[in-house]
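Q: Helicase HerA central domain-containing protein, please. Structure only.
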Amino acid sequence: MSDLRIGKIGRKVFTLPLDVAGEAIAVLAKRGAGKSNTAAVIAEEITGDGCIAEGIQVPVSEPGRPLIELTGPHPACCYLDDYKTASFDDYLRAYFASGWDRLNAKRGSWESNPWVWLIEFQRATTGGDDTP
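A: Structure for Helicase HerA central domain-containing protein:
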């Protein structure tokens, strides 16, 4: 099993075994300035909520039904298995995948299902003594 490259400082490369890469890591910034949770995940595991957090919006018709993109490079319809039974989360993921391939098709397409970093940040409140 190969390792996931997680960073590089100078010539030193830091890796993480793939079997533990899915475990979440909590990081507390120096002096309690903030907290982030990081994890290595597979791109196709993104949820509807994750798509919304990434800024994905699904256009809807006047009665509120989701609309699907049919033309252009990497149209969202190509990432939707069955529009008749698709949930709103499926539409969100289709639009996310479409956008992913517009940006990343040459270096790591949606179909290749690359490992990516999931990073969540929280603003920490301090009590005046730099402790959260």
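A: Brief note, in case it's useful. The chain has a mean pLDDT of 78.
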